Amino acid sequence: MGRKTVDLIGRFQGAIAATEEVQQHDKRVAELQAEIEELRGVNKDAEKQLTELRQLLSGQSGEQPIELKLIDPNPDQPRQTITEANIQKKMRSLDEHGQLMPIILIPTGDRYLLWDGELRWRAADRLGWPNLRAVFAPMPEDLHRKVLLGFLHQEGLNPLDRAAAIVKEVGLKTSFETSEILKLARSAVRQLERELQRNPQLPKLTEVVNASQKDQEAFLNRVNLREEQREVIAVLVDYQINPQTFTTRDLRMLDLPEDLQQAIRKGLDGSHALQIKRLSAKSLDTDEEGAFSARQQLIDKALQNGLTRDTLKIEIDALLITDNPPEKQQAGSRQLANLTKRLRQAKPWKWESKRRKKYETLLGRLEALLADTEETEE
Amino acid sequence: MNQIILSIIANAGGVGKSTLATHLAYDLAVRKKHSVALIDLDPQRSLDVFCGLEPAEPAQSITSVLSQDFKGEWPLATAWKIDKVSVCQGHQAIEQTARTLVIHPRGHYSLSDRLKKYPLPHEVVIVDCPATLGLLISNALAAATHIIIPLQLEPKAVQGAADVIQWYINQSLDLGLDPRPDLLGFVPSAYEAGTAMHRQLLEQLPVLAEQLNTKMYPHIRNSKEFVNASGQGLPLQIFRPGHKANDDFHEISNDLSRLING
Ligand SMILES: Nc1ncnc2c1ncn2[C@@H]1O[C@H](COP(=O)(O)OP(=O)(O)OP(=O)(O)O)[C@@H](O)[C@H]1O
Ligand SMILES: [Mg+2]
Q1: Residue A40 confidence class, pLDDT cut points 50, 70, 90
Q2: What is the CATH number of domain A10-139?
Q3: Which of A107, A329, B38, B209 keeps 20 to 30 A from B130, CA to CA?
Q4: Total count of domains within chain B
């Protein structure tokens, strides 16, 4: 007469589940701690930030697979030197044991900034893995600033990414649309230039950029800007970006046609791109396709042989001149013939002095312009 | 030397907590030559019985240790005339103390705080707990480096042990214990080979241990001599030196000894 057995394991189901969960958590914390220890040896400053991140992490357990190509490395990565041997070792470990602990990512719009796990990220990429498991940490206030500052001012950062990052940051801080930001920045810079000319007592923009936050504020209160303009400029100077260079250099990158933007990402110099941009459907008097292939030829050349700025300019000038339609040249020369004739007939000595002065200045300018062009043509 | 603070926790009465505490203390002190302090958190003062001690005044008991003006003078009695075994005796007044601890900001950490601020010199501290989970057992958990769970092979006690596991995990998180005290393992207690229920449950223990990723110690056999020994205020090792059940505690004290010596 067998009595029913007491199901011991059944009674412990809840306890078993809780144990598994907490032990997995323990394992992750232990691994995280090991990594932190490792980082600690490399960079003492990182310690505080990582502690912060670790706290964030243990609080939330959301893990997700993220495509490797959506991940940007952290330019502020404390572990600056990653050797080939490190990568090989990590590749072996990933291959054998799989990914033990999630990498830490900071969401930045539709991409992710890699906060921790660069080695695993690189190794996984080499192994051809499509994605890695990740946990997410919000961007801590000062961390974001620090990372972005490092990013914006790193050597060899392509100007397009720099421009895009700046505009995005201004957008985040002010909630203006991109087009508004461009307009506001440009008008603010014009206004600032006027003010600086009028008032020599004001500090130069290069000084403002490197001043303390308090001094920057003081400056912005002294100059006459609209509130929206002030907001945009404040963000720029806070990130040590000269608003003048931003409008004259960075913003022009964003106006580049798509093919040139891509070329920049492949390594084309920003100023080269601006030169090549002169080859448009309009300036070549052709269709978009024609302009595209003309630009592509020069892009390839520049990327392959590293053309100097001067040779590039000469090639472009040549293209623009020979490709110019004869009618246009004729139209220009007809206008000139007409003008010379009228100038010859004019009697400036009979004019009132103000008008005569203007006439003389214009002649002088015309002379200077011609001298200048003759020089470059030779 | 690593000091081990071992709390014996169960969510059931009469499952052999105090028996385990005292027999382990004896084995560690006599066979393994470690100094041991026993702390009685049970208002029933069960250690007094097992150690043959007269009831202590509140000032000479654990209640004084947990009071706000404790200055580090641990009230310690010697058990069984063995110098290596000290007892911090229990007292009924600890229930009142527990009620005042509830409103104290560090009420759950009182024992832990005392043991940190005024460490006992002993290599092992064994904390014997009352039968029901509450503030006193939370204190035992917060103070512990290790816990051990006696498991009587009866349905009700089994349920209690399962509850203890979940409580231990959640409570450690709630108290922010970092690291969480290690679960040394389960000790099946008062095992009777002649009881079908005991046999059935014992068979399932290895699987359970594996699933919980912990150790299942050899069972402590059931013997009337345990009751007889406690009636004399003695451990079985003194009361019946050659008794087979005395060996049942060896593996636990061997493990503890290893932990102490690092
Ligand atoms: N292995 C055993 N064989 C026989 N009797 C035992 C055994 N272990 C304990 N006992 C007896 O069972 C009773 C309860 O044991 P013990 O006091 O150790 O349990 P406890 O869990 O501490 O109980 P409480 O919850 O009351 O504190 C005691 O009388 C004890 O002598
Ligand atoms: Mg007891």
Answers
A1: very low
A2: 3.90.1530.10
A3: B209
A4: 1
- Which runs of consecutive H residues, i.e. helices, occur in B9-58? 17-26, 46-51
Looking at every residue in chain A, the average pLDDT score rounds to 79
Q: With contact defined as beta carbons under 8 Å apart, do B219 and B45 qualify? A: no
CATH assignment at residue B176? 3.40.50.300
Give the Cβ contact number of residue B137 at 10 Å.
Answer: 24
> In the structure, what pLDDT confidence band is assigned to residue A41 with cuts at 50, 70 and 90?
low
Q: For residue B13, how far is its CA from the centre of ligand 2 (angstroms)?
A: 7
* A50: confidence class by pLDDT, cuts 50, 70, 90: low
The H-or-E segment that residue B261 falls in is helix B250-261
- Residue B177 lies in domain: 4-256
How far apart are the CA of B156 and the nearest CA of chain A, in angstroms? 10
Q: How far is the CA of B28 from the centre of ligand 1 (A)?
A: 20
Is B262 a domain residue? no
Q: Does B194 map to a domain?
A: yes
Residues from chain B contacting residue A7 (CB–CB below 8 Å): 204
Q: Where are the domains of chain A?
A: 10-139, 158-254, 258-345
ipTM of the prediction greater than 0.90, yes or no: no
Instruction: Tell me the one-letter amino acid at A225.
Output: L
Q: For residue B164, tell me if it sits in a domain.
A: yes
- Ligand 1 site: residues with CB under 6 angstroms? B 10, 13-19, 42, 44, 46, 131, 189-190, 220, 222-223, 226-227, 230
What sign does the dihedral B152-B153-B159-B165 (CA atoms) show?
A: positive
Tell me how close the Cα of A3 comes to any Cα of chain B, in angstroms.
9
pLDDT tens for each residue of B81-121 = 999 999 999 999 999 998 888 888 888 999 999 999 999 99
Half-sphere exposure (CA, 13 Å, Cβ side) for B105? 0
CB-neighbour burial class of residue B49 (10 A; exposed 0-12, middle 13-18, buried 19+): middle
The residue whose CA is least distant from atom 11 of ligand 1 is B227
